[in-house]
Amino acid sequence: MKSWWTGPRAWALGAASVLVVALLVTVFLLRPAYQDQQSQSLLADVFPSVAACRADVARVVQTTTAPVLSPSLFSCDGGISTGVRISKHLKSIAVNQAGVITVTLHHRTLPELSPTTNTLTVVPLTAKGHPLQPGDVRQKIASWRCGSRADGTTIPAKLLPADCKG
């Protein structure tokens, strides 16, 4: 009686083994890239809230009659003091007196985040490219700086969209 390990069946068994090993290697090599894409897509869910808050900050800065900006002027500032969960991934949105938007994510809903790497900052800039100051009222915001480590963003850059990397 012939063994499985000799003859034409041995070649088929060897080829199948190589195929299985190649498949496993491919899965293990692509898994980290897939996890990053999954985290990026989950993170993208918070950007509509950020965009709405940016619009609110721009509107208030341009139209306020107050002598200086105050967090109480911004309607998108919420979740911090109340502890109310804003969405599945979004823990809070805060706006400071200079219009800087700080977004805190629930680190447990995104596998790449931790309690120390779950913050995104979006900073309004003047026409000269400087961050807005509390006294800069009735001005147009020229641009926004998003995701800069210098501003306090702790989310890994690989998870941020291309237009939000400082």
TrEMBL record:
Domain of life of the source: Bacteria
GO biological process, one term: cell adhesion
A Pfam family recorded for this sequence: Pilin
Gene Ontology cellular-component terms listed: pilus
InterPro entries: Pilin, Pilin-like
SUPFAM superfamilies: Pili subunits (SSF54523)
Family that this chain belongs to: Belongs to the N-Me-Phe pilin family.
Name listed for the protein in its UniProt record: Fimbrial protein
